[in-house]
Please model this.
Amino acid sequence: MQSLPQDPPLERHPPDGPPPVVHPLAVLIADAAAGRFPAVDGGWRRGVNGLGGAHDPRVIVVLAGPDAWIDSQDVLLTGRGSGAAPAGAGLRLVERPDLAAHHRALFAARIRDRPRVLGYPDRRRSAVVVFSGGLAGLTEIGFELEPERRGSGGGPGLIRDALSSLPAGQLVVAAVAPGNAASLRAAMTAGFSPIGSMQLFRRARS
Model:
């Protein structure tokens, strides 16, 4: 089985090669995940109030341009891989190519890099986890539990099982719509912490 996607190294690089290209936002997110937040100054280069105006829908529409795809404004959360799968027991989640048509997997394939679709070994289960190269090149997780299993702790369990597939300490980001209270609570129960917000858009092709 191939290893799951790794987030780029932030402090070291192979001695026999050039330093890896690390997106500045990846460094900012890693610092925030460790409790080191940038100073709050309200500044923003586009000339609006950065304390709230940057997410004014009118500003986003201007930035995105006419006929653009604009996603919801999401809560940005960070978590860590646990590497907690017992030795010799195998991973709790396995490759599930049969779930590639799930809407979570299709969404990740459209906007992220190298999506990998995972699920439980029991093929009767349709809970899905998608690990991808996401925001700033970091490992990003998407997930969805079967509707009939919601409300009984299955969501946090799914996320914890996913994190056990990653090396202990590996940084993981998740973007959850604030209105999706169930997923937001599941992610936080599983150990994710909110560090900010984000909004994706894609300009229309000319």
Remarks:
- The first helix runs from residue 24 to 33.
- The longest strand covers residues 69-80.
- DSSP finds five helices and seven strands in the chain.
- The radius of gyration is 18 Å.
